[in-house]
Amino acid sequence: MKKQSCSHTTEDVPFPQANRRKFLQLAVLGSSMGLFSVISGISEVRAEKKAGTLLLSCMDYRLMDEIERYMLRRGLYHNYDHIVLAGASLGAITDKYPAWSRTFWDHLDLAVNLHEIHTVMVMDHRDCGAYKILLGEDYSKDTNRETAEHTARLTQLKDMINKKYPKIEVETLLMGLNGEVEAIPTAIAKQG
Q1: What would the pLDDT profile of 66-121 be if each residue is shown by its tens digit?
Q2: Dihedral pair phi/psi, residue 135, rounded to 5°
Q3: How far apart are the first and last CA of the chain?
Q4: What is the mean pLDDT of residues 20-29?
Q5: Residues 1, 15: Cα–Cα separation, whole Å
Q6: Which residues contact 177 (CB under 8 A, 6 or more apart)?
Q7: 155-184 residues labelled b (16+ CB within 10 A) or e (exposed)
Q8: How many angstroms separate the CA atoms of 89 and 142, rounded?
Q9: Apex CA 159: angle with CA 135 and CA 170, to 5°?
Q10: 69 Rama class: left (phi>0) / alpha (psi -120 to 50) / beta
Q11: Which element (helix H / strand E) includes 53?
């Protein structure tokens, strides 16, 4: 039999090599179809579910992977809505950028109606550049003051959310640059 160096037909290729080539073509096609059915099945399941949780976090690129890992550990991976604002809680309440606050509330309203949100997680982080710029001071040098500043903003936003949506649970969190997250206890301000 005559071999050709570049052929798209199997007629000039020896029999064993033609079988291997045909097998590989079928194997790739079968694997692709199997993967497609798995992916489309996952998409259908996701489309039927409601997220239930909305996460507000800062835009800091240093922590995106850690945020994703945290949500995975909480069992929420690919099962939450995510709003990103510089400063997280501070970004949602600052007077310096009122459009940010409107954006947060518009997203929350939509998420409540569309995905039946019952929990809002507000995750600030240490050494936040937005806190430095918007508040005009670097609180990261003093851990206690930094925690107090975040606690004040987290509490304020939590109170605002609870006033508008009393049935929504609000978790207030503070992430370190190492990815460790601590729950920040907040007291509900007295409505008067």
Answers
A1: 999 999 999 998 899 999 999 999 999 999 999 999 999 999 999 999 999 999 99
A2: -100, -10
A3: 95
A4: 59
A5: 10
A6: 62, 63, 125, 126, 127
A7: bbbbbbbbeebeebebbbbbbeeeeebeeb
A8: 20
A9: 100
A10: alpha
A11: strand 53-57
Encode pLDDT of 162-175 as tens digits: 999 999 999 999 99
How far apart CA 139 and CA 148 sit, in angstroms, is 9
| Residue carrying structure tokens 């909480």 | 74
57 pLDDT tier (thresholds 50, 70, 90): very high
With H, G, I as helix, E, B as strand and everything else as coil, classify residue 82: strand
- The secondary structure of residue 141, as a DSSP letter, is G
Q: For residue 56, give both structure tokens.
A: 């507000």
Indicate the DSSP class of residue 187.
P
Residues across the chain: 192
Tell me which long-range contacts 146-155 makes (C-beta under 8 A, separation of at least 24): 147/174, 147/184, 150/89, 150/124, 150/174, 150/184, 151/184, 151/185, 151/186, 153/87, 153/89, 153/90, 153/93, 153/124, 154/89, 154/122, 154/124, 154/184, 154/186, 155/186, 155/187, 155/189
Query: Cα separation of 52 and 65, whole Å?
Result: 22
* Residue 167 in tokens: 């049935």
Q: Are strands 169-175 and 119-125 parallel, antiparallel or unpaired?
A: parallel
